[in-house]
C-alpha cells in the first residue's frame, strides 16, 4: 500500500507534465522533445527563489514564469519559423532535440553539472488511511488536482478554451472563422510551459536534489503516459499518468528500483502493440 | 602529434561506419530511430564476450559476463554484426509494424533505455556499471607489433572496414531494394499501390542499419578494449544524427563528411575553452551548444545538408511525377515545401 501512496504522488507530477504536453501537442501538432527542459528550468527557478525565501507559492510562481517564458521562446524562436516553412516531422524532431541539448548545456554552464539541493515544504509524515505521505506529498497532489480542474474549466468553459479546441480540430477552419490561431498557439505554449515548470518544481521537491538533466530523464516517462492515455487526449493523459505513476512506484516495491522506468516503458510497449490508439480514444471520440 | 592524429583518424573512421548505419535507418528508410546506439552497444558487447576468455570474477569485484568463448577476432566481429542485425529485426518488428514517425522515435528510445537499465543493473550479464574490460589487442598475438606499429595497423584496418561498408552500402542503395526503400520513404501510399510490402521493406532496411551499427560497435570495442553502459547514450546517437543532418541525408559521402566534422571538430573546439576560463566543464558544454546550434542553422538555411542526395532523374523528359500527390496521414511530408531533404517537389522543379 505504501507503493500505491507514492504512486499517487508520482502520478500527480507526471499528470501535470503530461497534460501540459498533450495540450500543446493537440493544439500545435508538434512533438516537443525539449518538453523536459520546461520542467528543468522550472525546478532551477524555484531553487533560485528558495535561496532567498522559503515561501512555497512564490517559488511556484517563479517556476511557472520560467517555464512559460521558455515555452514562449521555443515557440517564437524555434518552432514557428519551421512550422511556417512546412518542415517535416523528422526536421521538427531533430530541432527540438537540438533545443533540448542547448538548454541543458546552458544550465550546465550556469549551475554546474553537479547536484543542487532543493528542499521545499515540510517532510513531516502523516498516515492517511493506509497511505503514508509527507506534507509536501499532500501539497503536490492537491496542486495537481486544482491545476487539472482549473485547466478542464478553462478548456471547456472559456472563450480561449473554445478557440484552443477549434485550432486543435482544424487550424484553417479556425482561422477562417476568425480565431487568431497564431495567438492561441502562442498562449498554449505559455500555458504548457507554466504547468510543466510547476511540475518540474514539484518533481525537484520530491527527489530533493537535481542536475540539468532532471527533466530530460523524465521525458520518456511523460511520453509513455501521454501515449498510454492516447496522445493529444487531455483526459486520457491524466489516466495514462495514473497508470504509469502507479506502475512505477508499485513495481519498485517488488523489483530493483532501477527498473522503475523500464516498467513504465514495458506498459508503453504493451499498449502500442495491442492498442496503439491509447486506452481512451474511443471514449473521447463518442464525446465529440 | 602524429600519434594523436592516428587516434583521431581511427575514431573518425569508426564514427564514419556508425554514421553510415544511422544513414540507412534515417536517410533511406526515413524513420526516427533512437535505439541505434543500442545496436552499436550490442555489437560491442557481443564482440567482447565472444573474444574474451571465460570470466573469473574475483571476490572483491563480483562483476562478470556471459559466454567468454575466446574466439578469434574476425569471426567474433562477423557474429556480432549478425547479432546486431537480429536485435534490430526484433525491435523493428515491434516498432515498425503499426506505428509511424514520432511513435517509432519514442519506442526506440524506450528500448534503448531499457537495455541500458538491464545491462547496468545486472552484474552478471555484461559486467554492470563497470562494464567489460581486459580485451587483448585483436590479431596482435600473430602480428607481434609494437604499440606504435599496432596503432597504424588498426587505423588501416578501420579504414579498410569503412571502405568495405561504404561500397557494400552504395551497392545496396543502387539496387532494386534500395530504390524500393526510397520509394517507400518518398510516398509510401504510391509504393504500396505498386505492390511494395511496406513493413517488410522498412524492416529489412532497419535491420541493415542495426547490423552496420553493430559492426562499427564491434570495431570500436576492439579499439577501446573495454566497454560499459556509460559509453552509449542518447547523447552519442544525437551526435550521429547531427552528422547525418549536417552532411546530407541519404548521401553516404555527405554523412561521412558531416560526422567527421561533428565528431572531430567539436572536441577540438571544446579544448579551446578551458584556456579562456578556469572552469573545465564549460568546454564540452559550449561544444554541445555550438553543435546543436549548428544543426538548427543547417536545418534552417541548408536543409539538404552539405552534400545533397542525388535524385533519380527521369531522362525520358516526361512528366516527373505521374502519381498524384497523396496527403500522408500522420507522417505528413508536405510536397509544397521549399525542400527539407525529403520532398518530391524538387524532382519536379529540376525536370520542369
Task: Describe this structure in a few short sentences.
Chain A has 288 residues and is mostly helical. Chain A has twelve helices and four strands, in the order H-H-H-H-E-E-E-H-H-H-H-E-H-H-H-H.
Describe the structure.
The complex is a heterodimer of chains A (288) and B (352). In chain A, 77% of the residues lie in helices and 4% in strands. With 288 residues, chain A is mostly helical. Chain A has a single domain (2-279), classed as ABC transporter involved in vitamin B12 uptake, BtuC (Orthogonal Bundle), CATH 1.10.3470. Chain A has helices at residues 2-28, 35-52, 56-84, 89-111, 135-157, 159-169, 171-176, 181-207, 214-229, 234-254, 260-274, 281-287; strands at 116-117, 125-128, 131-134, 209-210. In chain A, helix 1 (2-28) packs antiparallel against helix 10 (234-254), helix 2 (35-52) packs across helix 9 (214-229) and helix 10 (234-254) packs across helix 11 (260-274). Chain B is mainly α. Chain B folds into three domains: 2-232, no CATH class; 233-310, no CATH class; 318-352, no CATH class. Chain B contains 13 helices and two strands, in the order H-H-H-H-E-H-H-H-H-H-E-H-H-H-H. In chain B, strands 1-2 form a two-stranded antiparallel sheet. In chain B, helix 7 packs across helix 9. The model of chain B is unreliable at 318-352 (pLDDT under 50). The interface between A and B is large, with 42 and 50 residues.
Amino acid at each position: 500500500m505504501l507503493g500505491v501512496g507514492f504512486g499517487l504522488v508520482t502520478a500527480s507530477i507526471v499528470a501535470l507534465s503530461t497534460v501540459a504536453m498533450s495540450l500543446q501537442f493537440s493544439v500545435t501538432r508538434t512533438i516537443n522533445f525539449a518538453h523536459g527542459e520546461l520542467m528543468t528550468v522550472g525546478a532551477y527557478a524555484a531553487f533560485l527563489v528558495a535561496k532567498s525565501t522559503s515561501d512555497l507559492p512564490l517559488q511556484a510562481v517563479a517556476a511557472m514564469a520560467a517555464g512559460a517564458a521558455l515555452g514562449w521562446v521555443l515557440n517564437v524562436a524555434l518552432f514557428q519559423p519551421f512550422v511556417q516553412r512546412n518542415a517535416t516531422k523528422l526536421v521538427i524532431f531533430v530541432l527540438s532535440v537540438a533545443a533540448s541539448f542547448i538548454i541543458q548545456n546552458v544550465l550546465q554552464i550556469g549551475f554546474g553539472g553537479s547536484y543542487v539541493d532543493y528542499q521545499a515544504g515540510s517532510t513531516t509524515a502523516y498516515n492517511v488511511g493506509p497511505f503514508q505521505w509527507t506534507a509536501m506529498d499532500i501539497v503536490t497532489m492537491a496542486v495537481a488536482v486544482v491545476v487539472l480542474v482549473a485547466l478542464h474549466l478553462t478548456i471547456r468553459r472559456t472563450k480561449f478554451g473554445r478557440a484552443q479546441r477549434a485550432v486543435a480540430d482544424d487550424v484553417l477552419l479556425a482561422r477562417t472563422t476568425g480565431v487568431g490561431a497564431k495567438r492561441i498557439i502562442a498562449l498554449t505554449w505559455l500555458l504548457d510551459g507554466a504547468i510543466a515548470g510547476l511540475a518540474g518544481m514539484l518533481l525537484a521537491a520530491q527527489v530533493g536534489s537535481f542536475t540539468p538533466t532532471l527533466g530530460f530523464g523524465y521525458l520518456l516517462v511523460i511520453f509513455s503516459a501521454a501515449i498510454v492515455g492516447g496522445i493529444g487526449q487531455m483526459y486520457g493523459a491524466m489516466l495514462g499518468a495514473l497508470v504509469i505513476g502507479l506502475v512505477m512506484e508499485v513495481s519498485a516495491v517488488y523489483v530493483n528500483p532501477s527498473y522503475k522506468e523500464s516498467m513504465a516503458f514495458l506498459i508503453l510497449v504493451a499498449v502500442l502493440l495491442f492498442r496503439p490508439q491509447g486506452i481512451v480514444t474511443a471514449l473521447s471520440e463518442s464525446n465529440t | 602529434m602524429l600519434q594523436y592524429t592516428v587516434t583521431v583518424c581511427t575514431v573518425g573512421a569508426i564514427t564514419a561506419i556508425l554514421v553510415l548505419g544511422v544513414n540507412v535507418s534515417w536517410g533511406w528508410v526515413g524513420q526516427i530511430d533512437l535505439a541505434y546506439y543500442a545496436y552499436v552497444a550490442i555489437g560491442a558487447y557481443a564482440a567482447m564476450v565472444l573474444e574474451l576468455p571465460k570470466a573469473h570474477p574475483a571476490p572483491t569485484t563480483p562483476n562478470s559476463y556471459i559466454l567468454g568463448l575466446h574466439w578469434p577476432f574476425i569471426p567474433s566481429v562477423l557474429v556480432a554484426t549478425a547479432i546486431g542485425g537480429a536485435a534490430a529485426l526484433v525491435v523493428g518488428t515491434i516498432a515498425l509494424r503499426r506505428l509511424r514517425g514520432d511513435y517509432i522515435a519514442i519506442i526506440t528510445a524506450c528500448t534503448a533505455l531499457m537495455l541500458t537499465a538491464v545491462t547496468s543493473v545486472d552484474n552478471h550479464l555484461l559486467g554492470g556499471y563497470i562494464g567489460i574490460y581486459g580485451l587483448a589487442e585483436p590479431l596482435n598475438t600473430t602480428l607481434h607489433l609494437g604499440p606504435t606499429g599496432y596503432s597504424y595497423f588498426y587505423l588501416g584496418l578501420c579504414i579498410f572496414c569503412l571502405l568495405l561498408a561504404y561500397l557494400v552500402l552504395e551497392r545496396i542503395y543502387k539496387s532494386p531494394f534500395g530504390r524500393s526503400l526510397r520509394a517507400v520513404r518518398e510516398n509510401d501510399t504510391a509504393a504500396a499501390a505498386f505492390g511494395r510490402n511496406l513493413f517488410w521493406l522498412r524492416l529489412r532496411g532497419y535491420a541493415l542499419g542495426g547490423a552496420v551499427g553493430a559492426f562499427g560497435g564491434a570495431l570500436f570495442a576492439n579499439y577501446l578494449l573495454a566497454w560499459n553502459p556509460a559509453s552509449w547514450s542518447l547523447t552519442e546517437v544525437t551526435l550521429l544524427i547531427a552528422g547525418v543532418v549536417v552532411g546530407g541525408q541519404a548521401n553516404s559521402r555527405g554523412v561521412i563528411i558531416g560526422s567527421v566534422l561533428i565528431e572531430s571538430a567539436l572536441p577540438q573546439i571544446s579544448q579551446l575553452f578551458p584556456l579562456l576560463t578556469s572552469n573545465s566543464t564549460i568546454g564540452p558544454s559550449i561544444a554541445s551548444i555550438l553543435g546543436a546550434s549548428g544543426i538548427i542553422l543547417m536545418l534552417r538555411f541548408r536543409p539538404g545538408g552539405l552534400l545533397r542526395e542525388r535524385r533519380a532523374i527521369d531522362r525520358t523528359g516526361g512528366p516527373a511525377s505521374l502519381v498524384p500527390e497523396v496527403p500522408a496521414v500522420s507522417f505528413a511530408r508536405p510536397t509544397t515545401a521549399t525542400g527539407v531533404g525529403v520532398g518530391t517537389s524538387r524532382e519536379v522543379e529540376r525536370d520542369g
